[in-house]
Write a structure and sequence with these properties.
By secondary structure, the protein is an alpha/beta fold. The protein has a domain at 33-159 and 249-287: D-Maltodextrin-Binding Protein, domain 2 (3-Layer(aba) Sandwich). It is built from 13 helices and 11 strands. It has helices spanning 3-31, 48-63, 84-89, 123-132, 135-146, 188-194, 207-213, 224-230, 257-262, 265-299, 310-327, 331-354, 358-365, and strands at residues 35-41, 68-73, 95-98, 151-156, 165-167, 181-184, 198-201, 218-219, 238-241, 251-256, 304-307. It has a 5-stranded mixed beta sheet, with helices on both faces. A 3-stranded mixed beta sheet has the order 5-9-11, with no helix packed on it. A 3-stranded parallel beta sheet has the order 7-6-8, covered by helices on one side. β1, α2 and β2 (68-73) form a beta-alpha-beta unit. The longest helix is centred in the C-terminal third of the chain and has 35 residues, at 265-299.
Length: 372
C-alpha cells in the first residue's frame, strides 16, 4: 500500500468511526439523562431505618455514576407513614420505603409479604422465597391485579426476629398479657388479639406519644436500636426478646409504576438490583448496631432483658392457626400461604437438618450469659 493510499484509508476509516460515534452519542445521552426521584420513607429522620433507606439511595447513585439520584425524605415530609403507598400510586411521590404491614388494611394478604406466619423458616429464607419461590409474582398479582395500583416494588433486608416488646414487668405467662393495651401492625394485630391483648396499630413515630397519653401500655417496634431511639428504656425496664408475631419481615421499596416504566432499562435495573445490594448493607449495619445497643440498654440503662417463655410462643402459633383458618378461605390468600408452606417445608428441612447448633457454640465460649 502506498503512503497516499494508506493516508486515504486512515482518513476514511477515522471519518467513519467519528460518524458512527456522532450517531450513537445522542442515544447514550438520552439513556443516561440525569434523573432525581422524590422518595419518602415511613421512618423518622433519626431512626436507623432511615439510615438503611439512605444506604439504598447511596447505592442507586453510585451504581448510576450519579446520573440517578434519590431525594430521600423522612416520614411526614409529604404524607404520613400509613399514606405512603397511596401517595406513590397517585404520583404525589416517586417512591417510598416502608413495610407491607403499613397497608395491610387494604388486603390482609399484604402482611404475608413481611409479617406473616412462621412455618419454620426465618426472614433470610423467606426473602429467598420472594426471589426464587414464587413470591415476586404473587406480590405483583396483589398489587396490580387485585388492588389495581400503579406501583412496582422490591424487597430488601431480612429483619431479625422482632422482640415481643416492652412491658412494665417481666412477662412469665399468658396471664400477664391479658387485656394489655399493646402496639403492633399487620397480621400481628390479629395474632396478639388472639392471645388476649388489646391491640392498636400505630406507625413507629406515634408510639411514644401514645405511651404518654396512655393509649398503649406496652409495645413492640422492631429492634433494640430503634427502640432505644424511641426512648423505650425511659418508660419501661422490661424487654422481652423472641416472638412469632413478626419473625420474617423485610423492607418494601416502591415506585410509581408509570414513572418506573418511563425510565431507561439501565435505570430500572439499578433501582431493582440496588435493593439487593442494600439488603446486605442493611443487615450488616443491623448486626453491628442492634447488638451494641442491646448491651447498652442492659448495662447503661438498667433494662432487664428476658427471653419470651416458650409457652407464650406456643400460644402465638395456636393463634396463627386460628387466624389462618379464617383468612385462607380467600382463594388468593390461601395460594400465598400454600406457596410459603411448600417453600418452608423444603427449605426448612434442609436448614434445620444441616445448620450447626449456634447456641451450643455460644454457651461453650461464653458460658452462663444467656440465662436460658
Amino acid at each position: 500500500m502506498t503512503n497516499t493510499t494508506r493516508r486515504r484509508f486512515l482518513q476514511t476509516g477515522t471519518a467513519a468511526v467519528a460518524g458512527a460515534s456522532a450517531l450513537a452519542a445522542p442515544n447514550v445521552v438520552r439513556a443516561q439523562e440525569a434523573t432525581v426521584l422524590k422518595v419518602q420513607s415511613a421512618w423518622t429522620a433519626s431512626n436507623i431505618f432511615q439510615e438503611m433507606a439512605q444506604q439504598y439511595a447511596d447505592r442507586v447513585e453510585a451504581m448510576s455514576g450519579g446520573k440517578l439520584r434519590i431525594d430521600l425524605l423522612p416520614a411526614g415530609a409529604v404524607v404520613q407513614a400509613f399514606q405512603l403507598q397511596d401517595a406513590v400510586a397517585d404520583g404525589v411521590l416517586d417512591g417510598g420505603h416502608h413495610v407491607t404491614a403499613y397497608w395491610y388494611g387494604k388486603n390482609k394478604a399484604a402482611s404475608l409479604f413481611g409479617t406473616g406466619p412462621v412455618f419454620g423458616t426465618d426472614a433470610s429464607q423467606m426473602l429467598a422465597w420472594i426471589h426464587f419461590g414464587g413470591g415476586k409474582d404473587l406480590y405483583k398479582e396483589l398489587i396490580e391485579d387485585i388492588l389495581g395500583l400503579d406501583v412496582v416494588g422490591f424487597f430488601a433486608m431480612p429483619m431479625p426476629t422482632q422482640p415481643l416488646g416492652w412491658f412494665k414487668k417481666e412477662i412469665t405467662s399468658l396471664d400477664d398479657m391479658q387485656g394489655l393495651k399493646y402496639r403492633t401492625v399487620g397480621l400481628a394485630t390479629d395474632i396478639m388479639n388472639g392471645i388476649g391483648m388489646s391491640v392498636t396499630q400505630l406507625p413507629g413515630g406515634e408510639i411514644v406519644p401514645a405511651l404518654e397519653r396512655g393509649v398503649i401500655e406496652a409495645f413492640e417496634f422492631n429492634n433494640p436500636t430503634a427502640d432505644k431511639q424511641f426512648g423505650a428504656q425511659d418508660v419501661s425496664k422490661y424487654y422481652m426478646l423472641g416472638s412469632y408475631h413478626q419473625a420474617a419481615e423485610f423492607f418494601e421499596i416502591i415506585f410509581n409504576k408509570s414513572l418506573f416504566d418511563s425510565l431507561s432499562g439501565e435505570f430500572q435495573a439499578i433501582l431493582e438490583h440496588a435493593a439487593e445490594a442494600a439488603s446486605t448493607a442493611n443487615y450488616g449495619l443491623a448486626m453491628d448496631r442492634y447488638s451494641s445497643d442491646l448491651v447498652s440498654l442492659r448495662d447503661d440503662s438498667g433494662v432487664n432483658i428476658f427471653r419470651t417463655p416458650d409457652s407464650i410462643m406456643a400460644a402465638q402459633l395456636d393463634s396463627w392457626d386460628t387466624v389462618l383458618e379464617e383468612l385462607t378461605q380467600d382463594e388468593y390468600f390461601n395460594r400465598v400461604v400454600e406457596s410459603q408452606k411448600a417453600w418452608s417445608d423444603r427449605v426448612g428441612y434442609y436448614i434445620l437438618q444441616n445448620q450447626a447448633d449456634y447456641k451450643m457454640a455460644y454457651d461453650h465460649y461464653f458460658p452462663n450469659k444467656l440465662g436460658f
